[in-house]
Amino acid sequence: MAVAHEVAHLKRRDLVFDIVPALASTLFFFLPIVRFAARACGQAREEACDAAAIRSVSCTFGEYAAML
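Predicted structure:
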């Protein structure tokens, strides 16, 4: 299941798209809203990969949570 989560990151090209929030956080470090948005973006990315992993492995949320 953990491998399915990481494969979801690769399929979604999260490494490439993570550059935007990282760059914004670096350039606008003095704005709290930018840090908040970057954190929210990261959280949404992880939740999307969790959902994709659950779909690809055909397990329940409880089984996935137990794996974590």
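Summary: The chain has a mean pLDDT of 92.
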